[in-house]
């Protein structure tokens, strides 16, 4: 049991290190190219040109479409749908929220970061929290303790 826990902790740490690793744009493009060639034949120069253009004008995750996200060769249709659904339910505040999308692996998030940004919300959301909404969409527990000695 301890070996399994140790393995999970080490795997999570390695994933975090890889996510934060300071790779150059060329390294990321080469990584994407290597993954794309496993799926089929890909023209490196065209891929590089397209990704450099996306790096210069990143995709805004809060105001994007499936067509825009499909320009990123390594995203599957399922991942694109999950990004759009997440952004529709509650717009991205930070790129770190990409970790909430379960279909995106750490290396895919790392490859995605140079080509996306988080812009202003398309529509303004109500900033007030209402107890009815909080309790309707979340699971909460209330734990109380009574210490009779101090009464």
Question: How does this model look, in words?
Answer:
- By secondary structure, the chain is mostly helical.
- It has one domain.
- It contains 7 helices and 2 strands.
- It has helices at 2-20, 25-39, 44-56, 66-69, 77-89, 106-112, 131-136, and strands at residues 59-60, 116-117.
- It has a two-stranded parallel sheet.
- It is elongated and about 75 Å long.
Uncertain runs with pLDDT below 50, 5 residues or more? 6-10, 13-20
Mean pLDDT: 76
Distance between the termini: 44 Å
* Order of the strands making up the biggest sheet: 1-2
Strand content is under 5%
Order of helices and strands: HHHEHHHEH
Label this structure with key terms:
single chain, 151 residues, mainly alpha, two-stranded parallel sheet, 7 helices, 51% helix, elongated
Short recap of the structure:
By secondary structure, this protein is mainly alpha-helical. It contains seven helices and two strands. α1 runs parallel beside α6 (106-112) and α2 packs across α3.
Write the layout of secondary structure elements.
Layout: H1 2-20, H2 25-39, H3 44-56, E1 59-60, H4 66-69, H5 77-89, H6 106-112, E2 116-117, H7 131-136
Parallel strand pairs: 1-2
Helix pairs in contact: 1-6, 2-3
